[in-house]
Prior knowledge:
Elements: H1 2-9, H2 13-20, H3 24-41, H4 45-52, E1 58-66, E2 77-78, E3 83-92, E4 98-101, E5 105-106, H5 111-117, H6 120-127, E6 131-132, E7 144-145, H7 157-180, H8 196-211
Parallel strand pairs: 1-6, 6-7
Antiparallel strand pairs: 1-3, 2-3, 3-4, 3-5
Helix pairs in contact: 2-3, 3-8, 4-6
Amino acid sequence: MLALAHLRNGHPYAQLAAGFGIGTTTAYRYIAEAVGLLAGLAPTLEQAVLEASRKAFVLLDGTLLPIDRIAADRPFYSGKHKKHGMNVQDLADPKRRLLWVSPALPGAVHDVRAAREHGIVNALTEAGVACWADKAYQGARGTVRVPYRGRWETLSAGQQAVNQSHTKIRALVEQAIATFKGWRILRKLRCSTTRITGLVQAVLCLHLASSA
């Protein structure tokens, strides 16, 4: 219950400790243990790709999880989002269900680089899984499909139609991510960046269990 309250509602340790009638250190230890166990149950990329191979296609997108950092922490600053955070990559199916969320990387890492570092592009390509992604993944290649580049007025009618269709399909993964970020702990992470991957994986485990 402590871990669920912390992850779902984002309550700080002191507040949870007072509510459960225990010490703050004890609350921290219990939550850390639970998060570790839950994170270990989250699906791996290999498991997600196996599940994806049964779908018509999957959707890939990156999201920035805001963190509490000062301006000097440049590796964590995302020029795209104009804020500090951690970059996580998300795979979702056509029914807006998340299949996998990657380990967290510093916010300065671009989406296409993050996808390569995690081995997402290679894994999907080797499995022959079609993947839809936005312009941030230009150059990913493999089975990753991205919109045509260029100003709207310079695109042909056919290219414009493809991009419009692409946008509608990609809206599915954005909806999946929005639901995932309903877990309040992800709205502003105030912990060490070394703990964020574990928190994200724990939330994913609970999120998938609650939406099954």
